[in-house]
Design a protein that fits this description.
Length: 112
């Protein structure tokens, strides 16, 4: 999810978004993404989930939903229900609140 804002005092543009539950922004000087809370360069592996605070597994799965049966890929949404999804091995997909309901039923570590 990204947000683009322009100011009336010139052509200053701020591009923001979220990654794994953390707010991020683009530094206009070097055009790289940085974490808003620490101003550190965004790296995919560097932080646990910004919502449940669990680290990714060694396989790269979200800690709160790791190693689910019959699941090909998934994202917990990191506190944003609309971003949650599950793709099952049969290629069917559920998203948003339906995915969250499924997680609540099958994941002991699911935080919301």
């Amino acid at each position: 999810m990204s947000n683009i804002t322009n100011t009336l005092k010139g052509i200053v543009m701020s591009v923001t978004g979220y990654i794994r539950g953390y707010k991020i922004y683009i530094n206009e000087r070097d055009e790289k993404w940085y974490y808003s809370d620490t101003n550190e360069l965004v790296t995919w592996e560097s932080r646990p989930c910004g919502y449940c605070k669990l680290p990714k597994t060694s396989e790269g799965h979200d800690g709160c939903i790791a190693n689910l049966p019959d699941v090909m890929s998934a994202c917990c949404g990191h506190g944003e229900t609309s971003e949650a999804y599950i793709q099952f091995v049969d290629k069917s997909v559920i998203r948003g609140s339906k995915a969250v309901i499924w997680y609540r039923s099958f994941c002991k570590n699911f935080p919301f």
